[in-house]
Specification:
Structural class: mainly beta
Distance between the termini: 76 Å
Number of helices: 1
Helix content: under 10%
Strand order of the largest sheet: 24-25-27-29-31-33-35
Number of strands: 36
Strand content: 15-25%
Radius of gyration: 28 Å
Amino acid sequence: MTDNLKIEERDGKRILTEYNGNDAHVVIPEGVTEIGESAFSGCSSLQSVVIPEGVTEIGERVFYDCSSLQSVEIPQGVTEIRERAFYDCSSLQSVVIPEGVTQIGVDAFSGCSSLQSVEIPDSVTQIGSEAFSECKSLQSVVIPQGVSEIGYAAFRGCISLQSVVIPQGVTEIGDCAFYECSSLQSVVIPEGVTEIRSEAFRGCISLQSVVVPQGVTEIGRCAFYECSSLQSAEIPQGVTEIGDWAFSDCSSLQSVVIPEGVSINYGMFEGTPFLKKIPGDLQILNQQVLRYRGNASEVVIPQGVTQIGDRAFYECSSLQSMVIPQEVTQIGNFAFCGCSRLQSVVIPQGVTQIGNLAFCGCSSLQSVVIPEGVTQIGEDAFSGCSSLQSVEIPDSVSLIGDYAFYECGSLQSVVIPQG
């Protein structure tokens, strides 16, 4: 069997560089200190391998696509499990990662669909992107205290994962970290996490409740999208940004605690019972217009409203005129997009930013007053306003976005400020 193992001497090391046999069981001889890159890659007959204690380094893709490999014990002395080391080892059921390993590399165990359990030692400080993605049989995992970041898609598609313990040291839960972990029922997000990235828990259809801890400042786009069993969510003071569709299509979501001052919009909660419970045609929450559901030709937004959210009046084809109170400071993306009969609008003095596509496709809009104080006009803000004849941009504006007045075929004059 050792005849099929190619071992080279380099700089005082004995490196196993290649295996070219088809045995089911391989014992690596004593004295080998390193297993080189791709040494056993594609060995579909390999079921078990004995790695001696002297090995301190296992290279990238060492057991890549060893589809029959069932078990492996990584010896003490190894400090890093490198990129794609066990990628697509679809028969691998268990693995012992020794104390001393500090990094689990990108895609290290990705596609190990039979892997049921893994114990990550306290020495690990980094779990790479997609490290355990598509480990469909993995039921539980304990992440050690030293880990500060759970990488992109680290546990994506772990459909049997029922619980996960995230330690205090973690500060960031990466994009798609637990995407489509459809059996995940509970998760405790610890104090210290500052950011829950985009799609982090998307499609976790068994997740019933979530408490976002103090210290989190950002909840990413689609972070809890399609968590259909989620019934309640509590968002703390200090959150400054919630991404589009963060809780969209959470079809059981009845209760959400949102602190004042957090910018929200209809799309964040679209398809939830929580949103349907907000009364009236003009849905207002935390002084923000989320959505207009009526068909009136004139709408007066009440005093006290400070923000018109993204898509608030999107494609309200009956709307002809709008009264916006002075307290409004922000007009969101797509806010009046597609309001094809809207003829005039007065933007109040307190507004500082007109969002992307805010008035896009308002083909009847003839005039608009942009007040002093607005600093940014977003991309496509007035695109397709084919009846708009003139516009005066105040001196406070420092940025006009791409295509801001695209296809404004009637526009005859425009004053652009010095800044």
